[in-house]
Amino acid sequence: MGTMISVHVHDDVPDDAVDLAVEEVFAEVERLEQIFSTFRPDSVLSRINRGELHVLDAGPEIADVLDACTWLEQQSHGAFTVRRPDDPERLDLAGFAKGWITERAAGRLAARELANWYVGAGGDVITSGTPEVGQRWRVGVADPLHPGGIVATLELAGGAVATSGTAERGAHLWDGRTGGAAVGLASMTVVGPELAWADAFATTAFVMGGPGIDWVRTLQGYEALAVTLDGALERTPGWLEA
Length: 242
Prior knowledge:
The protein is of the alpha+beta class. Helices cover about 35% and strands about 25% of the residues.
């Protein structure tokens, strides 16, 4: 997915049980990347884009993600898009698939009855339980304008946080309404119960620019922090910091 993934487990269980669960996490990432990757020529999505496979024959994973992307396109009035401006016939589902894949893979830990863990993928984090009794997971929101800095800290005991921006990868996000790069904000961070949607909402709100923070206010269960190009912070009313 073009990023690093880390798994951290804080349960008092045998090491081999943790090792097995972690192996299953990465196996699931590999399986789903083989479906959604735009870099692998043999992926399911690459075959769709070459016209070798119809989306209706591509399996339930493609259908689920396409349904979510269609909803996002409608709700954002076209700001979110799966059509690349440089190649409108080509699908790129990364705007939703990255968080969705990470959340699906992290579910392997819960399936192995591990209760206290977090999985990080780039600017996305999904958590379960706590690191110690009476504590919560502390997640820093990176400062997009000052490398190594932090603009906010969150405490989570379950739930997810995702950040979208251009600090790490440059102007790689585009606005479906204009076909141009999304450059109205420095970053957008969204916190909520599900990583798939937190990541997708962060991407969509970032593409929207200034109005993105108001758009997140309409989403039940999700809060956001925007960093503007001049370093100002804008928060939704329910945003809670440590």
